[in-house]
Amino acid sequence: MTTQTTQTTHTLTLDHGTLDVTVDLQGKQGRPFLLLHGGGGPQTVTPFAGLLAEQRPARVFTPLHPGFGGTTRPDWLTDVRTLAQVYAHLLDALDLRDVAVVGNSIGGWIAAELAALGSDRISSVTLVNAVGIHVPGHPIADTFSLTPVELSRLSFHDPSKFRFDPSALSEAQRAVMATNRAALQVYSGPHAMADTALVERLAKIAHPTLVVWGASDQVVDSDYGRAYAQAIPDAEFRLLEGTGHMPQTETPERLLPVLWDFTDSHVGA
Asked: Quick one: pLDDT at residue 102?
């Protein structure tokens, strides 16, 4: 059994201006999840969204960060904090409550910023191998200087299962990858995937928070993940062995029960 994906576009108005946000929805009933993708684009979370909607009573909303997947990024949308404000408005537009927010990599950073805004529509937050903070001695890999093959070696516990062949891409796929990369560079800011002031904002998060980390991640190591959890009041930390930077892709069957048990225990929090 596979779930069908419904795609909608929502026009949102912020103080900065107006923009359209494209959202994929999988699942017709159950707990609402806001699933935020990383720099690899929505395809890095779409299969997991389908799995979650198939195996649990869940409605999984996966927005495309403006500028990704052929969407348009307005000139005023240049940082993760503003993107988090966009998603706070999106939750209002969708009129969702008791939302479990989940983000991977830069999507985890966005989720953390969204949590720091303090929306009462959110009941829990799960950060999966998130970036966004500075941790002395535990730098974030400079992904922009790496080829896709090199990045794959750092991202997966077993890269041989995720071989990337650039020559197999169509011209349209290459164009989307290029625009995704350009959008990611804008959002990541001048400090390459981090904001020096983020730790101060993390200290204000009041939502139940779980930090999940793939033990084999060489983009951001597990001690970086522990520091992330320590920066958030009462956050839990869970290490997943045998997986890397994208557990939702490499070991979805291991991530799903961990995510569900945590979010289910904080319904209505």
From this structure: 98
